Prior knowledge:
Elements: H1 2-13, H2 22-30, E1 51-54, E2 57-59, H3 62-72, E3 79-83, H4 89-97, E4 100-105, H5 108-121, E5 126-130, E6 143-148, E7 163-173, E8 179-187, E9 190-199
Bound molecules: S-adenosyl-L-homocysteine.
Amino acid sequence: MHIQREKLLRQLQGFGRHISNQRVVEAMLKIPRHLFVPFDEKDLAYEDKPLPIGFGQTISQPYMVATMTQLIDPRPDQCILEIGTGSGYQTAILAELAGRVHTVECIAKLSHRARETLDRLGYQNVHFLTGDGYKGWPEPIVFDAILIACAPKDIPWELTKQLKPTGQMIIPVGPQDNQYLKRIYQNKNQWIEETLMEVRFVPMVSSL
Ligand code: SAH
């Protein structure tokens, strides 16, 4: 399996792709993606593709996970909010690199399954919640970064209230066939919206 992970990583670094952050590279090599995909998809676990995980949802493409993680560059003294736990694969990568991860998923069964997988891998720095990501985290925490793994039609600006002034939110925005990954951050008390690349994520569902 480790050889497959190295092969995957080479794909993530080829053809003008820039997964170069060594800590991210190590985390991608360490986390066993096959534990996060359904049994009949295991053969495809180390392909650079999203895969179905049930409930109409998908585990994100590894390149996307690596890209978003690299944008955040989570540190051991940092606290990250993730919205859209899904399989928990991205959660595990964040848990490996950050001090604490808070993750919200609207489908209870996915959240429970992700918790089981992360427990099995021994991560104790993750807080799971079944709920509506538009509401953010229910406690008054301010995060170093917010990573959103599902795409709302418009930027949920409310969530920026849970960001530190130095924090950033990485988020795919737009309808299914016209989505862009954005980085939202503050400069001189103004919110800046930087458009990074075209992407395709499952929709962020509203009014749960
Ligand atoms: N990074 C995850 C991606 C999961 S797909 C992985 O690799 O497995 C995105 C997830 O967002 C889905 O599980 C979906 O149920 C969840 N989601 C969609 N809208 C949401 C919302 N409003 N609040 C919380 N989670 C939501």
